[in-house]
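From the shared-data thread, chain only:
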Amino acid sequence: MKPQRLVDLLAVVALVLLGLSAYLTWSTAHPGSGRPSVDFSGYTVTKAPVTLALASVVAIVVTKLAGTALRRVLGALVLLMGVAAIAVALQVRPDVSELSRIRPELSQAVTDHVTLSGGPAPWFALAGGVALVATGLIALLTAHRWRRATARYERDPAAAPADQWKAIDAGEDPTL
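Structure, as tokens:
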């Protein structure tokens, strides 16, 4: 598989995984005393995975139009966004006081004891971060081999402009 296609595929996988982490349960609070459990989606807990996913997809799209040096810079940026997504997945574990600010019914004034349990969303964010790291690393290492966006529209660079005018006069399209 070509490196450009692999980067595209990994970027889409990262977008899907990080997007899913926003909608799946990140944490569940059990207030006890017969009260219903409260689920917190990833987007409620932190907006970082979705933001990082969208920013990295934009960076990957820009690499299609950029030169080699800018591709390397954007590849390094995507790599750093992947590291940030991994850090968010591993470190963001809200406690009861943080969740009670979001949902007042979990405050200690209302409940005696709240237990927390984790959901699957951090695992999806972690996998998406790993996919972003791989995307950035591949883009960074293979940027010099990528085809330029305008290369398919250019005629043989060895042909002189006078030869191209002669081709036009003969009724041929010099861009094919």
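The helical segments are 3-23, 42-45, 48-63, 68-91, 96-102, 121-142, 161-169.
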